[in-house]
Records
---
Amino acid sequence: MGLESLEAEIASIRESATSVQRTYSQNVTSIQNDATLSDTGKSDQKADAYAHAKADLGALRQREEAVINAAINSRKAIIEAPTKPTASSIISYRDAQDRTDRIADADEAKALIERALRQDDLYLAHAIFDRATQERWHGVAQVFTHAKPEYADTVRELQTLIDTRDAGLERTMQYAIFAS
């Protein structure tokens, strides 16, 4: 799925969330203005409306997260594909991942990825790149794309997707519901 199409799908999901929030607010106002309900009746109906809206918003948030994570995994698969064709290459990649787990910071990662790329150690280079995307070490990712320009667009999309996924406050507010 292209980035524009993904953004459109996320926008659609978020529009659905806005609709749920709007409906909840209208329901609460209607309940508050219902003269036939006692205070207990109003409270019970508002609690029920809140529970339904919260469940709907939770499902929409999970759907957005699933869409984003699928797109991230798809971009990672494109980048990692050349390094995983056999059982032995999977083991080599795992060993490289274990080695990258011991990297302390971006400077160390940058030096190590430069060396891996010079030595054509794609398993280690890809493992370092993966760690760099997790840690947001953009300079390391730039070293990777400079050496592997065929991945530049995919890396850029991957970084955008990770930023979108990790925009915690924005997403929280998008799917929040405030009890009235």
---
Amino acid sequence: MINIDNTTEEELKNLTKEKLKNYILNINDKQLTRIGILSLLEMIQSIIDVKDGLEEGKELLEDRLSEEYDDIINLYKDIEIIGKDIFNILKDQGDNKIEEKHVFELREKAHKLLLGMSGYITEIAYINEIANGVLEKEKFNKSYNNMVQNIDLKKFYDNVYKFLTEDMNTLHIKAMEIVRVVPMKIAKQKYYDIIKTAIKKSLGNSSETKTDRLIKRYKSIFNGTMEIEYGQGFDFYFRKTHEFKQFDFKTASIDEVEKVYNDTTKILVEMNDITEMIREIGLIINRIIIILFSIDKISNKKEQVINIIEIYNDDKRQRELSKLLKEGFKEVNEEFTKDNINLEKIIGVYIDKDRNIDEDINKELMVTKEYLAYLNDNYLEDIDLLIDKEGEIATQDYLEQSVDNLTQYINRNIKGMSNKQRKVRMRRLLYLTDFPFEKPEDFFNYLKNSIENNSSKDDIILSINKVASVMASYKSKK
């Protein structure tokens, strides 16, 4: 076989479809092995990290959790046992068999634990965001009182335009960062039109199942109490969430607002720490799933990992283990990256010869796609969102009805909310949708409404300062 690294595109074009197919299948097979080995290395390091994290966080977990603490510890013990079974399989020791069904059940348990915290975090985060906004305005009013004279809005919009367009690859992210910090000053129907258009666009070619799951997620983003596990566990945080939701911003003094901001900030930090522990356990399970998919391929390269496994089992060699894991990961990742470029190059040439991908190639590439879905799943997604199995594609009518259902849900919810609650929730949903503006001028119209429809010059300058802070944060990273 030729050396693909040194082969030009023209030379590849001279190869037959059959030879190109063989190259694709051969490289893809190597990539599947590498994904398996990367997963094994990451599993070993993560098991060590989670063990340390559980020991460090034991006091917090025992104090805040009841039966959920046992659930977390039992999940860790299960994955530790499975990890040892994997080591024994690779070392050809014993008659170890790992039930794939059991591993997926463990993943579902971890996923449910995350959902159990998610709704509480959502609701407390809204209280925290409102409190922060009140405090920012109070601080601004004290600092800038009677100092606002002339505002050059044209210059401001020009600066925003330059900021957004200096790197087109980051335009979307930067624009949505601005949406996140400016007040929402558009009519309700216009808001619904923007949301509907954005969501329908992002859900194009999705299955009905995926559409349903994502619409449900948007609902739970808007109102954390919609999360199916809300109120079903983590009793301490359920009570704290209910307590914070009773806070009345209309009658509260600035000192009381500052206290609720500090209290919600503190509790969000500890909730995120607990969530991170659960998430890390879930990501280990994702790695185990990949290892089970590729155990035969890894076994063919087991000389690369046997030494690491031996060191892992020796408590006196942990520092050496950390170094070996880093070196092993770097080496395999570099090989994977290099061959991924080669694979894309060859597939491009193959498609130029024939738009119809060979069934064998398509089948193997779909396997790789599934491996990578688990490898890159950093948030322990719902399986139906992570792997969008072939199913009935949602029609435009189905999408229209689903999105209408979402806007009707929002409309029902906001009727009993304060203005602050309504605005902060609607803004976050807008911020978290895929880029909701069809054209650049749509974004600037939104920004102008957000800036210029404020009730006072002080509010205008506060909004401008928030946008300026976003722009400054990017400049500081350069």
